[in-house]
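Q: I'm writing up a methods section and want to include an example of the input and output format. Could you take the sequence below and give the corresponding predicted structure tokens, formatted cleanly so I can copy it straight into the document?
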Amino acid sequence: MKFLRSFLSIVIFSTFFSLTIQAQFFEDFEAASKTGYSAGSITLSTGTWFFDDALLRSDGSGDKKNGSQSARIRNAGSISMNFNKTGGADEISFFYCKF
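A: Here is the clean output for your methods example:
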């Protein structure tokens, strides 16, 4: 009986007082600019990123933005991290618009 009471106390305690701690890795591409499509690295708040046939701009009046800038990729271009995220990626989300 004492074991059962202790077990139930642990279950109830862990149910009501459990904490989910989740670190977030967030890059908003607002900390730098890259005005041309030529391949090159830029340093942002999370680290160095490589833009190939891609740019960052704030002056595109037709660009969709979530903040003050947009990242624009053309043709078969890409944006990639030049560093590793500790623990790997769990979920990746982004806003996009196709022109």
